[in-house]
Specification:
Blueprint: E1 6-11, E2 20-25, E3 33-43, H1 45-51, E4 67-74, E5 86-89, E6 120-124, E7 128-130, H2 137-140, H3 143-156, E8 164-168, H4 172-183, E9 187-192, H5 195-203, E10 208-211, H6 218-225, E11 231-236, H7 243-249, E12 250-258, H8 272-277, E13 281-284, H9 290-303, E14 309-314, H10 318-326, E15 333-337
Parallel strand pairs: 8-9, 8-11, 9-10, 11-12, 12-13, 14-15
Antiparallel strand pairs: 1-2, 3-4, 3-6, 3-15, 4-5, 5-7
Helix pairs in contact: 3-4, 6-7
Length: 339
């Protein structure tokens, strides 16, 4: 195929500055790099914070941490990838495997370097993950942040047959948690303020549904549903407002995976004595490594799992996509096409 000399890209010029669509040169892949023709991206809460201008430069830069497309050129020294391969980019492309370090988590597309809201993107080959054959590019673009985050939480807790997982809300991470936990053999308890959204979660595999508007002390219901034992894993997205409930919901020796701060950045008033006496583990999860991403893709390929996408927008309608996210109208993921 013919690669153009110039491309369209969306650029952030500074904190709070309006987004600008520009024309700029298409880069050439250097040693160890590939050129990806970007077909789709997706919107995460992290991108929302970034687009609000709340994260530092460099400026200008192209936003969006998640993207998927097709390799159209390969630099020297690249093994395992070739022109025509469909790939998605890892959220932390330098965190290849093992535990996180400051160095491995330093690079993040859309934050520390140009992200995926452009027609072509040069990227390190080691940070690209093959797209499962059964997923479209739009579906694949929803996996790198939300899917890997859910997977990392489940793997941290070694979730398997007979375990109980609590997922909060019906955003991307929660619904990935529902689908993946069910595929691992776990029982899933899903909380939400909307019965309509809970119905979608039920269709995706949630066993028990709790409307926390009707049942504000939902941890009591979790204990009732588990015959007083509590859950093996709580995937906590709310942060300060939900963490105390999550601690109360966990079984002795259970895990609370803190993966979001949807209720803000304030200090959470949790019971230290309860954490100690119940031998609880409270673990922070920031997405995961490239290896975790690849393991997830192998799993969803084997189980034929498809992400739930409630809204798809053309990339030129990013403002409309953000409005849907900020209003909480979405269920699962919001995707962006880059035609």
């Amino acid at each position: 195929m013919s690669i153009p000399d110039r491309q369209r890209a969306v650029v952030m010029n500074g904190p709070g500055a309006p987004l600008e669509t520009v024309h700029r040169p298409v880069g050439e892949p250097g040693p160890g790099q590939v050129l990806v023709e970007v077909k789709a991206s997706s919107l995460n809460f992290h991108d929302n914070i970034n687009l609000m201008g709340l994260l530092p430069g460099p400026w200008p830069r192209v936003p969006m941490s998640d993207g998927a497309g097709e390799i159209v050129a390969v630099g020297s020294g690249v093994d395992g990838l070739q022109v025509g391969d469909r790939v998605m980019g890892a959220f932390h492309p330098s965190w290849l495997d093992g535990p996180p370090t400051p160095e491995s988590k330093r690079d993040l597309p859309g934050d520390t370097e140009d992200g995926w809201l452009q027609r072509y993107r040069v990227a390190d080959a080691t940070g690209q993950v093959r797209t499962p054959d059964h997923l479209s590019d739009i579906e694949a673009a929803t996996v790198p942040c939300a899917g890997v985050t859910a997977w990392s939480a489940l793997r941290e807790a070694n979730i398997g047959e007979g375990d109980v997982v609590v997922a909060q809300g019906t955003g991307g991470v929660s619904l990935f948690s529902v689908q993946l936990a069910r595929a691992l053999g776990a029982t899933v308890i899903l909380t939400s303020s909307s019965d309509d959204k809970l119905k979608i979660g039920s269709d995706l595999g949630a066993t028990h549904l709790i409307n926390y508007r009707a049942t504000s002390d939902w941890e009591t219901e979790v204990k009732r549903l588990t015959a007083g034992r509590g859950a093996d894993l709580i995937v906590d997205l709310g942060g300060p407002a939900t963490l105390p409930h999550s601690v109360h919901s966990a079984r002795v020796g259970g895990i609370v995976a803190v993966i979001g701060v949807l209720s803000g950045f304030d200090t959470a008033p949790i019971s230290v004595a309860e954490v100690m006496l119940n031998n609880l583990r409270i673990i922070g999860i920031t997405v995961g490594s490239v290896r975790a991403h690849r393991d997830l893709c192998e799993f969803i390929s084997a189980k034929r799992i498809k992400p739930h996408i409630s809204h798809v927008f053309d990339w030129e309608k990013l403002d409309e996509a953000l409005a849907v996210m900020r209003a909480g109208e979405h269920v699962g993921k919001i995707a962006l096409t880059i035609p």
